[in-house]
Structure formats: C-alpha cells, structure tokens
Amino acid sequence: MANFSPFDATLWYATAGEAPSTRPLDETVQADVCVVGAGYTGMTTALELARAGIKVVILEAEQAGFGGSGRNAGHCTPTFIHFSLPQLRKLIGEPWAERLIQRQTRAADRVADMIERYQIQCEWVRNGFVQAAAYPSAVETLRRKADDYNAVGARTRFVDRAEMEAITGSGRFHGGWVHEEAGHLNPLGYARGLARAVIQEGGRLHTGSAVTEVKPEAGKWRVVTAKGGVLADKVIFATGAYTVGGWPKLDQSFRIMRVFVAATQPLSQEERRTVLPRNTSIHDGRGDIFVYKYNAEGRIVASMFPMGRRGRDLDYTRQVMTDRLKWLHPQIRTELRWKYLWFGELDMQQRTIPRLYGLAPGVVALTGLSGRGVPTGSMLGGILSEWALGVPERDLSLKVEPLHYAPFYMSFAPQLSLRYHRALDWVRTRRDGATLPPHA
User: Which residues belong to any copy of the FAD dependent oxidoreductase domain (predicted)?
Assistant: First the structure.
C-alpha cells in the first residue's frame, strides 16, 4: 500500500546486530496459529504462543523488522500520547479502557523483560523520558498528567524549570513531565532479537514470504504464499502500516501518515556532557513534534513529521532540524551533519489506539497503532496470544470489532491536526511572552 523508503538507508540497519538466518516458505506446513507480519506485534505474539507450547509460524513479506519496527526512532515510552487517561476512558469505555491502560503503562517492563530474558543486544537504556513545557501555560497540563499516570501506578513526576535544565541541558523549557520508567533502544536490533527468540522457543519464521490469500480448507485456514502455504487453525494479521494484500480491504482500515527520522554524527564528549546529560529521551513539548535522544555512538536521533517543504526538500529538512536542535542547545558548536535520514509510515485511524478486528471465525487483524511503536507493539502480543489461546473475547484488553474502514478525511486530518497544534503553539507562546523556535 505504502511507498516505503529504502530500509538500508536507516541508521539502525547500519548498527543493529545481524538478523537470524531465515528462508522463504517453499512448502505447505501445519500450524496451530499462523501470524502474518514479523514486526513487534507479530513476533511478541508468536513468542508468547511458542512459549506456551503452541505450534506457530510467522510469515513476513520482507525481513524481520522491515516496517515500522525497524524504522522508528527507538523511544520506549509507555504512554498514550494522543489522549489523556480521562479522555481515553470516555473514548473506549470500561472495562476495555482500564485493561488497556494497565497493559500500556507497564509495557516498558515487558520490553525490559524480553531484552533481559533473551539477552537482546539493542542499546537498551532505561533513563526515562521527558515531555517539556514549551511555554508557561503548558505547565498545568503536565502537572495533571503526572497525577493521572501516578494514579494508575506509573512512576512519573513534574519538575520545575531548573530541574528540567539539569536533566536536558536546555534552558528553553518552563518545566516538564518526567516518566522515569521509559527507555530507548536500537529498534531494529530489538526486532532482530525478538526474531531470534521466536526461533529459540521453537517458532518458525519465514521471511520473503508475502501472503497472497487466506482461504478456508478442511475446517482450517490455508495461508497462501508464492511457493508454499500454512494450514492453520487460527490466523493473526499483524502487518500494521505495511499491510499489502493478504485479506480483502484490510489495508483500508487505516490511512498512512509519514514521519521522518534523522541522525547526526556523534557529538563530542564535551557536548554530550551538557546536551541530554542523563541520556533521556525528550519531546520538546510542541504540537509540531520534535523528539530526540542519543544512540549508543552518541549521535542525536531526532524525528519530525513532514510539513510543506519539510520532508520534500532534504537539504531544507536537515537545516530545519539543525536550527531547532541548536536553538534548544546553543552549546552545540559543531556543524551538524545529518548523515542518515529516512522515512517510515504510521497506520493512523481516528481513535489513534490499536483496533482488533474479527475478520472471520478464527481470523483477526490488529492495525491502527498510530505511531506508538516499541511499547505498544510489544504489549499487543500479550493480547493477541490470549485471543489465540482461547481467552473469551469479553475478557481481552481490546474489544474485538468488525472491520472498520478509515474514513476519507483520515487521509488529511492528521496533517491538519499537526498544523492546527503548530498554530496553537504560536498563539500560546506569544500570549505567554515566551520565545518561538526557528521555523515556527
């Protein structure tokens, strides 16, 4: 469906450990469960099932982590970025909301557990996440956010301007929300580690095996590839924004929103002592999102959304990112070179939380992560594996729904929302007497 940017252009492709040895499926095999898609969601699902003694096969059109799981910026922040917790409860109702909140707010624990259990080499550090108050009137919102998340058992706190500067090395912020349980990693390294773990636990992973059709056969489902197939009792589609065929109109359950990620050269030791000195991840608090962190080499890895010329003119895009980063951290004296710049796709739908679709008896699909990659994709495997193990639908943490097509307006609504929040930032910053960043 999407026009994917080259996978081998990413920083992660250059720095992640090698992928496990796999091959395309060239025969018909039997399985209890066939999982389509080797991203975080598909692989954590298969991992849970394999550990439970279930015979599971994963089919992947490209290679493990090819989609959003290998292209994202590597933040592991167990939150709901688009909605506050009270808004989420109103949106999806109980008992689903409270179950999902508990799953999501503990998702970083799940990631840490899998990394430790399977000794996954992926640059994992758990030094927290900071969301900044970009102007004074944002302070109260972040105070409420800390209260809401702490009430459900998360370990977060609001910090004042002085402590925010100590944590981030930037004097531009008016306070911030610190989530102490968050972390960051090399996302492709993590994906490849999950692939190894699936194989280690007895699951089968076939890459280069695009699914062309799923059809009933002898009371089971035949999942068809170019040269083989899987005959399974249950089928799970976990292809997200990188859905291409496989089930009629599944790729219409979301709309694509592009995002880009870029990485600088390694900063000097002196700069690293004053720029993000505690090696946290940070969201600079603006609606025109700028999120950044270090990788293990000391490169700043930052992400933004395309808007107008930004994302189309790559030289201009690099200049925008340089100007924003140096405005936040004027102590960076080096000429920044964004050697790596790549694009990914998000599967957006109007509720911006994952949707679990019942496609047919014994067949489900999960799409609509809307940009909540590492923690959300990892915790969803627990929900999908429970479905496959026969947990009643009423007891799952996501409601099983009929397939919904994303409305046409979702083709442009996310971009309009981004522009609206950018304009709102401008108004609030001016009203509060604060300073606007370059290109605002």
Answer: 32-387
